[in-house]
Every structure is written in structure tokens, then in C-alpha cells.
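Lab notebook, bench 4. Still working through the backlog of constructs that have no structural model yet. Next entry is a single chain of 532 residues. Request: give me the C-alpha cells for it.
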Amino acid sequence: MMVNVYRFKGDSFLQSLFSTKKLRLCLFRMLGRPIKIKAFLILPLIYFIHIHEVATVAVAAIAAEDTDDELGAGATAVLVKERKITLSAVLEQGLRENPDEKLRQYRKLILDIDTAQNHDGFWYPQLDFVVHGEEQRLGTLFSGKGRQGGVGATIPQGYAGLAVRDYTLFNWGKDYLLYQVKQAQVERRQQTLFEQRLNLKHQLIAWYFELIKIKNYEQIARDYVRRSTFIYRLSREKIAARKIGQQEYYQCRNQYLLAQQEYNQSRIDAKNKDKEFAFIIGDAPDTLYIPQEYLLFKRLRINTEDALRIYQEHNPAIKDRLLYLENAQRKFEFTLKQNMPLPKITVNLGTYLHTFGSSGTDTRYSTLRIDNDHKLSAAPGGDRIEIRAGIDLVWNIFGEKGLFNTRERMHAYYDKVITKIEYDNVKGEIENNIRKKIQEILELEEQVKIVGPLADTAKKQYDNTLDNFLSSKASFIEIKDALLNYKAQEELTLRVKYNHLMAKLELIGFLGVEEFPGENFEGLARKVGDEE
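Model written out:
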């Protein structure tokens, strides 16, 4: 029968003493004759082994003594890749190998192209190299009885050259307003990519310490099994000596089985978390992680006033709403100027063109325009570069836009008002969230002051109750209550410290910065073995 065997620290001699049968065999070898040991004589020795935590844990030992008492939770050994990790290694690999981060690198390249296109399209005239050739007849595949002429010239004709589109010198800032709208949108999208990278870093920190928490839960469950196993084995010795009844014995056995079940579930949770973590940082899916650090508790240093000052400059949601508000103002100004009879001042820089055809070739400079259908049209000025001004205005008297485009102007105005209200609402909501999150952090810090003494008290209560249980002065209900309380306080200590970290990460997300002033999240990872 396959059984689960739990890791332990211990000495092989003490392990052998853990079994009553093995102890009798050991004494027989030392004394040279058989000896019968009463069950109650072995209890102090077992308790000594338990206190020093060097005993063999649980199921395999019980199976060796009595297979009827074993839980049949078999498992075959699976070869897995173990990896020791630290927070710095997780951050380095995660920011490099995370799938979303790889996509952001290419999105940044696209935004760089958009920035260059928007900039050059506004500040520089558009210079095109143009080549156009008319259809040319290369030959005839079939000719009918008619004498109609062929389609297309036999001599190539067309043009090639450099053409400059009409360039706007001044139009009362209308083009510049549209340029600012596009430029602000692209710049904000670039900032968003950086903010998403910061968010990924904070998520990696949260995932790493969550992995540590799950691993610690597994260790607590393992210790819970060990203590429950000790109580169960103790009840076996007591019932053999007829010091307890069958009811208490089965209560101890049931407690042991429940502990075994909880430990198996904690192992499953740890394995699932390993797989999730492997996907996040780009490792092999069967990697088993062994964190080399623990979470160091540090109190929050930033106050509410500083937090409210920082978030206004860095919070992503505030930046988004501020962008919408500024662009709404620009569009409103554009609508107003578009509805006024303001002249547009332009210059035609002309076209340097080489034409060819049956009548010969010609290379010259002029203010020709090349239409979309490749036709050439002469503009006033011939070969002279002239600055021109013109007015192009349409007022809607009755129809879609209303009298003198009033509806269009009011639409732009209401858009501006709406974005201002949304900006104020988001700002107020974030300020409220910051205040609540800081209050939550402070409350968790007060809880940390309490859970430490609670855990120490729970341990002392368990040890004291166990002493009484050994001497039959405490009932099973009392030792069970002490055992569950001990486990619950250990889990509570982990949970409160982890929740404190998560609240700080949420707060830093509201502020929109990488670290708190004067602090470093990587400093929360302390090497296992170092004193806190």
C-alpha cells in the first residue's frame, strides 16, 4: 500500500524509539533478554521526542505498526524540478518573461511610430515622390474584322517627380488644437504602458508573498498533522493500558484523520500555486518553488496629507480624466474657431516634375497640383511661390447643426462640462479610497500587535494542556481546543501580515508610484534565518 510520508527533522535512533515494538526490541538487544514494557512507561519518552520535534511524522509509521489504522491516501513519487527563488530573481525574470510585458514592448514601438507621424504631419510639409505611367499597348493577341484602333499608346507617357502638398502657415490655431489632441492621446498611451509595467511589478511582489503564505500554510498543516498524530498515538498507548475509553480513542483518531485531510488539501493548494506562479514568470509548469525569504512586517510611514499630494500627479485614473478634460477643452475651442470667418493662410511650394510621352520630354518646376486621379492641374502663380489666404465657412441655418451651428457648439460645450464633472467625481472617489486604505493599514498594524502575543499564548496553552493530557488531567475536548487554537493563531499571524502587505500595494496603486517615499518593497523580503 502506497502512503504519504512527511518530511521531518530527527535522528534515526530516536525514530526507532518512537515505536513501542521497536523500543522493546532495542531493550531486548541491550539487556540480552525479553522485556515487557507497560504502555504508560513509554509515554514520557514519546512526549520528550514530541517536545524536541524529532519524531517521525505520522502515516508511514502508523502503517508499519498497524495497517488497519492507516488512511489509504496513496501517491506515487513524481519527479519535479525544484527551484530556490528570491524576490529579486522573481522581479527580474517576471518583468522580462511575462507574456503581457512582451506585448507591451511591441506596443511601445507602434506608439513611437504614431508619435513621429503626428509630429511630422503637422510641423513639416508633405513631400512625395510620384511616378505615373499611362496604359501602354505592348501587343495584340487577337484582332477582329473591324479596323478600330488599339487602346493605349505605343510609346510610354506619364510623369515622375517631387510634389509638395499645400502647406498651412496659419489658420488661427485650429490645426494645432487637433495636433495637441492626437499628441496628448499618444503620450498618455505611452505613459499607460509604463504604468502597466509598474502594476506588473506590484503584482509580482503580491504573487511572490502569496506563494510564501501558501507554503507557510502547508507547513502549519504539516505541524498540525504531527501534533494530531502524537495525540492519536498517545491515545493508542492509553487505550492499550485501559486508561481511556473507546469514545475518546475514536475522537483522537478522527482528529488525526481530519488533520491529514487538511494537510492533503494544503499540499494541493501549494502545487496549484506553483503552477500559477510558473506561468506568470515563464518557468516550466512542473516547477516546485522553494522560497528563500519570508515577509518582514514594516509599518506604513507615509501620512494621509503626503498621499493626497502624490496621487494628484501620478494616479493613472486622474491622468486619464485630466486628458479627457484637456482634449474636451481643445475640441470646444476648435468648434468655436471653426464657426468663425477666419482666413486660412497657405503656401503652395509647387512640384518639380519630369513628363514624358510621344511629344517629347519636359522637366520643369511649377505650382501644379496632382489630383487623386493623377490629372495635373495648374494653380495660380505658375512657377512662383506665393502665400495665399482664403475663407471656407459654412453656417447651417436650418437642419442638422441648427441655427449658425449652435447645436454643434453646445454639444462640444456639454462634453467639456461632463468631463469636468467626471474628473471631480473620480478625484473624490480616489481620495476617499486613499483615506480608507490608510485607515485599513493602520488597523492591520494594530492587529499585528495583538496576534503576536496571541500566538505565543496559544502555544503555551497547547503545551500546558498537553502536559495535563499526558497525566490524564485534561480531556480530549480540551486538548483539541488548544490544538485548533494554536493552528488558528499561527494562520492568523500569517494572514494579518499578508493582508497588511496587500493593503500597502493597493495604496501604492492609488498613488501611481513605484515605491513609497524612503521605502523599498524589495526590503520586505528577508532571508530565512535572519532575525527580524
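Notes after review: The longest helix spans residues 174-240. The CA atoms of residues 163 and 351 lie 4 Å apart. Flag for follow-up if needed.
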